[in-house]
Design brief:
This protein is α/β, with parallel strands linked by helices. It is 44% helix and 14% strand. Strands 1, 2, 3, 4, 5, 6 and 7 form a seven-stranded mixed sheet that branches. Strand 2 (43-49), helix 3 and strand 3 form a beta-alpha-beta unit.
């Protein structure tokens, strides 16, 4: 049986290279799509993730939900935020007694006047309703009840999650029947500005090497310096930008 790992933050396909470069665990939709067997055989999906990008999480959920084979989910550490949505794609969901699940509202970062914030609030409410659908489908709870749990940022241990119908089995519980085949939370995401700056540095380094037809890559120390510098810039930027208006797109995280 194929085992597919959902580990680390849920990121966009275009940003996954950054996490790979620094050997940081992360999961992108392409990782899942490339891992699903072509023969439709059963798969085990092992989850330990604090969540991440809402659109990437939705794509992974959809890929697993539409897979023609049986999807067995095992929550071994954490299934928070977007990772809890991904877990809902399982035909059978088992959760370790030491694991945690968390569901909450979609978040974004917007700067601007009162009109900008009102518009953003309406968009976020729409996202919340969309994201509530997998929980409703799994548990049979009403959408209002699920949205209330999301409003409260609800953490659940394995027994709580099972009682709510979010999982089917608490792992290692001998009283369980045999397997049936069926934040603001910080998810560990690296700011897009940091990734883009690192990408630019790599591109510039490659361009400068073309004249001599040598393949030159930026070393870990130099790239780490770029990242550290950009993090400092971003911290200063966001501290000073609270009263400024910005039309820059802010990715939705969950």
């Amino acid at each position: 049986m194929t085992t597919i790992n959902v580990k680390g933050p849920i990121v966009a396909d275009g940003d996954k290279w950054f996490y790979d470069y620094f050997k940081m665990p992360a999961t992108a939709p392409k990782d899942i799509n490339d891992s699903l067997p072509e023969d439709g055989s059963d798969v085990d999906v092992v989850i330990n993730s604090g969540g991440g990008m809402i659109d990437s999480g939705s794509e992974i959920y959809t890929a697993l939900k539409s897979y023609k084979g049986t999807v067995n989910v095992q929550i071994v550490g954490m299934a928070a935020s977007a990772a809890s949505v991904i877990a809902m794609a399982g035909d059978h969901i088992a959760m370790s007694p030491t694991a945690q699940m968390m569901i909450h509202n979609v978040q974004s970062s917007v700067y601007g006047d009162s009109v900008d914030h009102q518009k953003e609030a309406a968009v976020l409410e729409t996202f919340n309703k969309s994201i509530s659908a997998p929980y409703v489908a799994k548990t049979g709870m009403s959408q209002d009840d699920v949205l209330s749990m999301m409003d409260k940022t609800t953490w659940l241990n394995a027994d709580d999650a099972k009682a709510k119908g979010l999982v089917d089995e608490v792992m290692f519980d001998e009283t369980e029947p045999e397997l049936q085949l069926t934040a603001a939370y910080n998810a560990g995401l690296v700011a897009p500005d940091v990734i883009n700056k690192a990408r630019e540095a790599l591109v510039d380094k490659t361009k400068s090497s073309k004249a001599s037809e040598q393949v030159i890559t930026i070393d870990d120390k130099a790239l780490s310096k770029i990242v550290a510098e950009q993090i400092n810039v971003l911290e200063t930027k966001y501290k000073n930008q609270s009263n400024e208006q910005s039309d820059t797109f802010q990715p939705f995280v969950f």
